[in-house]
């Protein structure tokens, strides 16, 4: 019988009152899978736990959390024989939504018992893996401010984004891809493996997680009229057709910024840098969906 290891981030999600281990026990189909539950104790712990679980022979290691937890578990599973599963508990759930994993816990747990296995591409930015999106500029800046906001959820995110929009300035960058160098300003430069940031905000609706390419979305400036068009494009999934952003596809991108620029990995602020090396490894991770 296949073995599933559920790794729960007790800090993720907005509803902490739920007894997640009890709900998993209630909804798992014990006739098709054996399971164990382990809890993370600190940020970064899920990566170690995932690698351990893979070494112990679990077929699927399930991230029970948001995209931050999914990223840690995915990193831990790279190069192992175990597949990444997801029981979405975050506020955005970008990868779970892209893979069409149910958002409700009971249905997601049942899906993990009888999943379809599939390999997906994996992105790297300055050597760090991402599975959904990474990016430079305003979205990374908002992730940083959001992490300091004290409360979470979509409404806090929107509040922080509107506040920061008033004074955020773009940075000059040179972007090398497909044998050419573009000299431009970077308000947002997103590298999309999956189509959305989470919350059905489609930064690159045409992104295919198995095509061996990253979809780049470049916004060089964001005056108010364009900000409205970008917001609508994100919500409606028609940003490329809207003309409010420029798109490219590539497997390897280099960015040189005129000043240190914040970047995010799967929605979590990851630091500032002036040089970025972004690459994609095709079909490097198996997922259970
Ligand atoms: N036991 C823990 N204590 C404190 N932090 C933890 C613990 N386990 C995991 N974390 C950290 O919590 C962070 C947030 O988790 P995650 O992204 O899964 O949830 P979220 O922020 O609620 O969801 P979303 O990213 O969708 O908003 C992760 O970056 C992870 O490193």
UniProtKB/TrEMBL annotation:
Q: Give start-end of the signal peptide.
A: none
State what protein this is by name: Lipid kinase, YegS/Rv2252/BmrU family
Q: Provide GO CC annotations from the record.
A: plasma membrane
Native species: Hymenobacter daecheongensis DSM 21074
Q: Give the molecular function GO annotations.
A: ATP binding; kinase activity; metal ion binding
Q: Which keywords belong to this entry? A: ATP-binding, Kinase, Lipid biosynthesis, Lipid metabolism, Magnesium, Metal-binding, Nucleotide-binding, Phospholipid biosynthesis, Phospholipid metabolism, Transferase
Q: So which cofactors does this thing need?
A: Mg(2+)
SMART domains per the UniProt record, alphabetical: DAGKc (SM00046)
DAGKc domain location is 1-129
Gene3D superfamilies membership: 2.60.200.40, Probable inorganic polyphosphate/atp-NAD kinase, domain 1
Which Pfam families does this entry report, sorted A to Z?
DAGK_cat, YegS_C
């Amino acid at each position: 019988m296949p073995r599933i290891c559920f790794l729960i981030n007790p800090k993720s999600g907005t509803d902490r009152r739920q007894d997640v281990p009890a709900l998993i026990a209630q909804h798992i189909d014990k006739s098709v899978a054996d399971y164990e539950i382990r809890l993370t104790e600190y940020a970064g712990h899920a990566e170690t736990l995932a690698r351990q679980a893979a070494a112990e022979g679990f077929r699927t290691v399930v991230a029970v959390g948001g995209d931050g937890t999914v990223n840690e578990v995915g990193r831990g599973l790279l190069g192992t024989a175990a597949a990444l599963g997801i029981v979405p508990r975050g506020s955005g759930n970008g990868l779970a939504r892209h893979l069409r994993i149910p958002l409700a816990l009971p249905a997601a747990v049942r899906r993990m018992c009888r999943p379809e296995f599939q390999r997906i591409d994996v992105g790297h930015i300055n050597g760090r893996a991402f599975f959904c999106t990474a990016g430079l500029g305003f979205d990374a800046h908002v992730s940083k401010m959001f992490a300091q906001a004290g409360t979470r959820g979509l409404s806090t995110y929107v509040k922080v984004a509107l506040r920061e929009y008033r004074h955020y300035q773009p940075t000059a960058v040179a972007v090398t891809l497909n044998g050419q160098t573009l000299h431009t300003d970077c308000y947002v430069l997103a590298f999309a493996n999956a189509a959305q940031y989470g919350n059905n905000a489609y930064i690159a609706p045409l992104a295919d997680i198995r095509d061996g390419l990253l979809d780049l979305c470049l916004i060089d400036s964001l005056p108010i009229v364009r900000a409205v068009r970008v917001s609508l494009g994100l919500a409606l999934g028609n940003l490329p057709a809207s003309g409010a952003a420029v798109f490219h596809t590539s497997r390897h991108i280099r960015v040189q910024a005129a000043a240190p620029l914040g970047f995010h990995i799967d929605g979590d602020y990851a630091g500032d840098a002036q040089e970025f090396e972004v690459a994609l490894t095709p079909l490097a991770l198996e997922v259970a969906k």
